[in-house]
Amino acid sequence: MKLPLLLLMAALPMASMAQYRSQVWCPDNGDGTYTNPIINADYSDPDVCVGPSGTDFYLTASSFNCVPGLPILHSNDLVNWKIVGHAIKKMVPEEVFDKAAHGMGVWAPSIRYHNGEYYIYWGDPDHGVFMVKTKDPAGEWEEPVLVMKSKGIIDTTPLWDDDGRCYLVFGWAGSRAGFKSVLSVCELSADGTKAIGNPVIVFDGNNTNRTVEGPKFYKIDGWYWILAPAGGVPTGWQLAMRSKSPFGPYESKMVLAQGKSEVNGPHQGGLVRTSQGEDWFLHFQDKGPYGRVVHLQPVNWVKGWPVMGVDKDGDLCGDPVTRYKKPNVGKTYPIQNPVESDEFNEPVLGKQWQWHANYNPKFGQPTPYGFYRLYTNKLSENFVNLWEAPNLLLQKTPADSFTATAKIKFAAKKEGQYAGIIMMGLDYSALVVKRVGDKFQLQQVTCHKADKGKPEEVKVIAELDATDKDKIDYEPAIYEEIYLRLTVKDGAKLTFAYSKNGKKFETAGDEFQMREGKWIGAKFGFVAEEPAGKAPSGFLDVDWIRVTK
Q: Is the pLDDT of residue 401 over 70?
């Protein structure tokens, strides 16, 4: 049994509650250098800004259909990051995102500080350009404002000019607009809430810079700058464009590419300046099943161009760095990484967790008793696979190799209810406890090409006698207490294991090759489902999950 919440909090030193150091990936080497990626997790299409202090950096990233959306991470040195919140509690339109809407929603956001407030803009390719704002990025954000109703506009970034006018740069999704590889600029109202001008094409990359997208807008030393990736997600490069007018014409140059490094497709991110006058570029690298992880590159201005990484041959196009000196931010800050493990000791859900659709309290709720409770979700009458499930509670993979172990108790009230741990993507595999008759089976449930409607494959691992028959939640149920584990190795190879006592684990099922999801990396966490019908819901109580080597 864990200590009651208040006693446990009193027993913990404040430092242990304030900083979390990952066992599986820490970019700060402790000697004044860092190793890329600075965030080895799927924060795709990252953007960053700095607050008025000059030492508070805030990062956000695409969240697509995952809720809460628009994660907010904070750092004081651009290397050590902490998840501090989310800008969206619920996606709109609700009738779309109350269901699993894979790959839809928030595409390539931008975050900016302007006139005492923080703004985030993003393009939803099906509904338009949205904006949220706040005075406190770690606190509450205002409700989204629809800035431009449209279909096909994506990857939006505002720029407030010296005279107070506001401009927006954006790209186009070929799947919705019918054309792509084009960047446009339009004028917004001074408060950034609506378009007051028509779009102007400022860059066409269809010849030598195909798939140009994800533009970021800046004004530096009298020049308007658009930084944009081109060449495709896994194989592309980073462009810098400059003009004396927000509407162009722009001259462009490639300023970052893979070169002789092992970092494929280094592009799409944000430029930021430290209080000491250094410029840095945060961008992603596509790592397939692991998603798009975040790298940090030094930026040096050479002949008027922002050369990123290290340019050894003098062509003004840098190669990505692997190990490099940390940014000069005036002082040294403690090591800190995004939280992965969770003891579920607080009556709020940890910030690393997201649902696959808008949250419904029927999915699950925290408790003050040291566990999180998930209820079994009723699947559809025509169920094929879990691509339809909105109630998957998931987090990003934190490293190329790691182990996640969970202590759970599952109470099943009816035949066919099941719950356990899952690695979810276009392909998925789960290790679940399922009620069969008056007993449980431990099963591996695997699906290949879930997005294509392919059926699941089930492998029975073991027969489990129910721990007891009792009255749980005032209704007859049987329950099982068990430890479930998943281990990921280099190459995104996953294996499961289980234990009855938490000490001796037995391998369970077949090795599984992870696959990414729809525009996101594979994610792991918890699943609790049941067949369609009128049965009372079963429930999964998660005592803890611990991410280790």
A: yes
Of 394, 389, 365, the C-alpha closest to 377 is: 389
Per-residue pLDDT tens over the stretch 312-343? 999 999 999 999 999 999 999 999 999 999 99
CA distance 70 to 87: 5
Element (H, E) at 97: helix 94-97
- Read off the amino acid at residue 90: K
Q: State the Cα–Cα distance between residues 296 and 81, nearest whole angstrom.
A: 12
Indicate the pLDDT class of residue 4, thresholds 50, 70 and 90: very low
For 491, residues 6+ apart whose C-beta sits below 8 A from its C-beta are: none
Determine contact, residues 172/212, Cβ cutoff 8 Å. Answer: no
At residue 470, the pLDDT reads 52
* pLDDT interval class at 291 (50, 70, 90): very high
- Tokens at residue 23, please? 């066992």
The span from the CA of 83 to the CA of 341, in Å, is 13
**CA-CA distance, 270 to 19, in Å (whole number)?**
25
Whether 475 has a pLDDT exceeding 70, the answer reads: no
Query: Buried (b) or exposed (e) across 389-426, using 16+ Cβ within 10 A?
Result: bbbbbbbbbbbbebbbbbbbbbbbbbebbbbbbbbbbb
* Cα 27 to Cα 29: distance, rounded to the nearest angstrom: 6
Asked if pLDDT for residue 8 goes beyond 60, the answer is no
C-alpha–C-alpha distance, residues 419 and 480, integer Å: 11
Mean pLDDT of the chain: 95
pLDDT at 194 over 70: yes
Residue 209, SS3 per DSSP:
coil
Ranges assigned E (strand) in 369-492:
372-375, 377-378, 393-396, 402-412, 418-424, 428-436, 439-447, 457-464, 468-472, 475-489
pLDDT of 309 reads: 98
Q: Residue 495: its pLDDT value, please?
A: 98
Amino acid at 313: D
Residue 241 CA neighbour count, 13 Å, CB half: 27
C-beta of residue 351 within 8 angstroms of C-beta of residue 523: no
Of 468, 426, 418, the closest CA to residue 446 belongs to: 426
- Cα–Cα distance for residue pair 75/79, rounded to 1 Å: 7
